[in-house]
C-alpha cells in the first residue's frame, strides 16, 4: 500500500501525479516525521558551545542581559557584619545609570545582621522560613514567606532568622551614586535578639 502525499487525504502539491517526473521524492507525513525526529536527535546530541545558553554565564541579546543561575558564586556573610551562619548570593547590580542592587540572603537559626542603615532605603522579600526584623526603638516583628518589608532611608534596623528556624529573603537597595548601599553599625546583642 502506498502512502498518499501530505497525509491520508491524498492532497498533493503542484500538478497532478501523472504529470510529475518519477525522480521527484514524494513528501509524506511519515517522511516528515522521520526527518524531524532525526534533526531533533542530532541537535540534542551536540555538545554545548560558547553560543548555547547552558555554556554561558550570561547572555546579551541586544540591550538585554541575562545572568544565568549559578553564574555568580555564593559567599559567606562576613563575620564583621553578621552573627551566626549567613550565606549571601548576589543576584543583580544594575549598570549605570541604574543604582539598584539585589541579593539573596539566607540566615541559619539564630543568625542575624548587625544594626545598619541604607542611604536610599531597603526592600526585603521573604521567600522561605521564619525570621525577625526590628527598627531601632520599636518591637521586633516576625516575618514569613511572601512578606515584603520596606525600611526607609537612614532607618536603623536589623533582620535575621528566628532562634529555631532558618530564613531567606531577597534584599534590594540603591546607592546615591557612590556605590555604597549600606552603613554597617554595631552588633545586635544576644539580649536585643531575645527581646
Helix segment tally: 2
| End-to-end distance | 85 Å
Instruction: Report strand order across the widest sheet.
Output: 3-5-6-14-9-12
Strand percent estimate:
25-35%
> In which range does the helix fraction lie?
10-25%
Unreliable segments of 5+ consecutive residues: 1-17, 22-56
Using DSSP, what is the number of strands? 15
Taken in chain order, the helices and strands follow as HEEEEEEEEEEEEEEEH
* Helical/strand content category: mainly beta
Overall average residue pLDDT: 80
Q: Cα-atom Rg, whole angstroms?
A: 29 Å
Largest sheet: 6 strands, antiparallel
Shape assignment: globular
Characterization of the model:
- With 195 residues, this protein is mainly β.
- It has helices at 29-45, 190-194, and strands spanning 58-61, 64-67, 75-76, 82-83, 86-93, 100-107, 112-113, 116-117, 122-129, 131-135, 141-143, 148-151, 157-161, 167-174, 183-184.
- Strand 10 (131-135) and strand 11 (141-143) form a beta hairpin.
- The protein starts with 28 loop residues before the first helix and ends with a helix.
Amino acid at each position: 500500500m502506498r502512502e498518499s502525499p501530505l497525509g491520508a487525504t491524498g492532497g498533493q502539491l503542484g500538478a497532478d501525479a501523472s504529470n510529475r517526473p518519477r525522480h521527484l521524492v514524494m513528501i509524506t507525513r511519515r517522511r516528515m516525521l522521520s526527518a524531524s525526529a532525526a534533526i531533533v536527535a542530532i541537535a540534542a546530541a551536540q555538545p554545548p558551545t560558547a553560543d548555547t545558553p547552558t555554556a554561558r554565564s550570561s547572555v546579551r541579546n541586544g540591550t538585554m542581559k541575562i545572568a544565568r543561575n549559578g553564574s555568580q558564586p555564593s559567599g559567606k556573610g562576613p563575620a564583621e557584619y553578621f552573627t551566626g551562619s549567613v550565606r549571601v548570593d548576589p543576584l543583580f547590580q544594575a549598570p549605570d545609570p541604574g543604582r539598584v542592587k539585589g541579593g539573596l540572603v539566607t540566615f541559619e537559626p539564630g543568625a542575624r545582621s548587625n544594626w545598619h542603615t541604607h542611604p536610599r532605603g531597603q526592600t526585603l522579600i521573604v521567600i522561605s522560613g521564619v525570621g525577625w526584623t526590628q527598627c531601632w526603638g520599636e518591637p521586633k516583628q516576625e516575618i514569613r514567606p511572601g512578606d515584603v518589608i520596606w525600611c526607609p532611608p537612614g532607618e536603623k534596623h536589623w533582620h535575621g532568622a528566628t532562634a529555631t528556624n532558618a530564613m531567606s529573603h531577597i534584599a534590594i537597595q540603591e546607592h546615591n551614586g557612590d556605590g555604597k548601599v549600606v552603613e554597617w553599625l554595631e552588633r545586635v546583642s544576644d539580649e536585643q535578639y531575645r527581646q
